[in-house]
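Re: beginner question about structure tokens

> Can someone show what the tokenized structure looks like for a real chain? I only ever see the sequence side.

Sure, here's an example I had lying around. Input first:
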Amino acid sequence: MTLDLVIRDARIEGAREACDIGISNGRIAGIAPAIASEARVIEGRGRMVCCGFVETHIHLDKSRLCDRCAAAGSLADSIALVSKLKKEMSEEDIYDRARRTLEQAILQGTMRMRTHVEIDPRIGLRSFDAIRRLKRDYAWAIDLQICIFPQEGLTNDPGAEELLIKACENGADLIGGCPYTDSDPDAQVDRIFEIARRYDLDVDFHLDFDLDPSAMTLDKVCRATEAAGWGGRVAVGHVTKLSAISESDIRAIGRRLADAGVAVTVLPSTDLFLMGRSAGGNRPRGVAPAHSLQAEGVTCSIATNNVRNPFTPFGDCSLVRMANLYANVAQLGSDDELACCWRMISNDAARLMRLEDYGAKVGAPADLLLVDVDNPAEMIATITAPALGLKRGCETFHRPTPELLPPTAR
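And the corresponding structure tokens:
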């Protein structure tokens, strides 16, 4: 077998023994204790190798707006602020801001991404067109899915549906919704599923984004998923209402989600920033307990959501940092629990996005990270950034190891 590259003396995510990894034509061609080859070598030096991370929910199109407006505080105010800004956004402006965010994510080890893109009469298809260009321009480093959705409602926003359909006809990868901003949330869910079935698209909703558990749209989404036969093709993000219910109710809802085939994405940074602001004291955390849902068989992921905008005025696109944040919020600290958080930005996130070729295994794309840690739990606990990234066997970034300079070395 002719190889293009060999990673020597590396440990595949969690394994105790080191091995060599042979790469040919952008794929993992062999994994063995030692591989004889004259191909170019990357020295692993006993470091961990894992697959590139999977970002399941981010908004590239509205990232980096903090220089144009202050953080609004509430969810409704944030939506209103961005709504005003959208009218003046050009395609080039959107592309430039999204590019900077995407590059930051790549440097943090993300190699698969689902970005939500707003479609409505205010922005038209400018964001969609900008992100499609970005998808093409950065295919060498990241695989990008575009999920179109109406942020400000659908049934109450004339012209939005026509634009969504046009985007579907022009290459959208999947479709989403935001029922809590619609005057008729259930009707929006029905319309989104109708469009999804027409164009054979997966579905990803923003859902139940407050702390009042007395009324949820979640069961409506489950019923619509079952009626459409879309099990395994539907995800919901936020669902912060689930942070305000009992553990027994969480178990029951987890079983319902698992049976329907609806996955869940938690967005710790945004949800912590926006939820519970009206509480005078003892503020709730407002982050859905993904690990408890996982225990009931639900596919779950941890994701970034917003970066440097009114919804979330911070962020460095590190999914490792986001998983660490979730572990802090959920009070998870054992190695097994931290490894669970790691899976929610890797293997489980890949399952949510139906990435069947994901994994550090022979035949899979050589989308790999080299990390100076012993295991995934340590990576999350210490927020260690990857040292090197390979996309389809080609190096995409390199992060030099920091070096102390004591007086004798100067």
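Each token stands for a local structural state, so reading them left to right follows the chain. The two ends are 47 Å apart (CA to CA).
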